[in-house]
Amino acid sequence: MKKLSVSLLALFALIFCFSETKSQQDLNQDYFEMNKAIEIFGSVFKNLHSNYVDDLNSGDLVKTAIDAMLAKLDPYTVYYPESDMEDVKMQLLGQYGGIGSLIHKQNNHVMISEPYENLPAHKAGLKAGDIILKIDGENCEGKTTSQVSERLRGQAGSTIELTIERDGKQFTKTLKREEIKLPNVSYSGMIDTNIGYIKLTEFTKDAGLHVLQAYKKLEAQGAKYLVLDLRDNGGGLLNEAVNIVNLFVEKGNVVVSKKTKHIEKNATYKTTKKAAAPNVPIVVLINPYSASASEIVAGSLQDLDRAVVIGQRSFGKGLVQTIIPLVYNSQMKVTESKYYIPSGRCIQAIDYSHRNESGFAEKVPDSLKTAYKTKNGRTVYAGSGIEPDILLEPYTPSNIAISLAGNFHCFNYANKFVKEHQSILPASEFKITDDIYEDFIHFLKDKDYQYVTSSEKTIDALIENAQKEQIDSATLSQIKDLKQRIIEDKKNDIYKFKDEIKILLLDEIITRYYYQKGSIEASLKHDKEVKRAIEILKDKNEYNKILGK
Hints:
Largest sheet: 6 strands, mixed
Distance between the termini: 65 Å
CATH topology of the largest domain: 2-enoyl-CoA Hydratase, Chain A, domain 1
Oligomer: single chain
Radius of gyration: 27 Å
Strand order of the largest sheet: 10-11-12-15-16-23
Strand content: 15-25%
CATH architecture of the largest domain: Alpha-Beta Complex
CATH class of the largest domain: Alpha Beta
Structural class: alpha+beta
Shape: globular
Number of strands: 23
């Protein structure tokens, strides 16, 4: 009970510390209501333990209660019990103790998806497709990926014994866990004669330094232009976002401001150092999964007319969280402020302070979006994330591609391929030939990859309505014939979407030989956003026109 009361008191104290502007009378009423709520909760909790028919887990109950309370706010205000501290460390620092491998579940077993290069799983010889049967003697059959992942993680330096099945044979491997530090820059390289490319995956510690190091290498290779890829980057540390902007923007420029309920807690972050590349033309790539720190970088460079932004509208996370230490080594991440980028606009796209009748928060309506001006006078808008200067349609996979990937047919074929081919050409040169593709089709002969198209669903609905309305049998028969023709036509999808499926196969196979870096390198050849970025950087007039120069 003491633990519960102290934890809740800390939470409510945090909430009401932002009420300094209230009158003393209002504050007294607030504290009365707070203590009343704690007392009521404590009474409920105590009587549950005393009277409930079954034994109760105090920790689980408290966690459930706190989570339910925080769910009324925004998705970023989160309570972390002591047991979740490893996850917090990973989120903030991009590191954890483990074996260094992606995993997934297939046929009631969790298996290795991809071992990270030069980390324990890779060093131990584990391969994509290896089934994890046991961890330290504990059977893993039927367990979820989360359950297995939790067992794989642990203190760096500790050992773990895995029983693995490969090609029907079982063997045991003993691995020593390491501190797994995920790279901020997952890939960098030249994508044209004088155009460099940097893929920034994380905004964890030293992200700015790693981008600088990558840029210097590209500069030495002759890079005069740069593509900074922030797609699928969910953000991270604010100071690293500022550091990255400072690489391209001279000292003294505002990057982002934080505004809270209290003026004294507001903060403005400026570039503080001489820029490493103040004049290099830049294209920034974003998509709907670019969020938070990614949006600060993309939005600041856009507001300062320092880069052309290409892709799809970003996620729109303009809320700022701070970590608050609580009792018993627990912590809470609390939304305390909002981000505002140089033009003065806030990038937050969803208004959690106002909810509809169903209790769901909604996006800021277009009618409430406010116009702002960039440094050169271009119009940009608040309340919608970052709108690209060049908006491109996102990739929409075909039904057959979704089915083949979702049923792990491309994954499993890649495992077959690597057994038959000791080596392949470099990642930038390897291609899925027609012979390889025909072999893949042969591989699918006894595999199930059925899927229902939108056309089939439409016709099924039409048939249902026709039957209800007692349409004559001849017409109904014609409708059913049409459905059958669509089903027959669907058999050709494996050839109709050949180019798309080849890209899926390419990614899986390349990953087996050259890991994540190779996968990214190979994907650049087929990336329409990267191709558009190259076009813009090569067209000085168009580039300057977009930036209002």
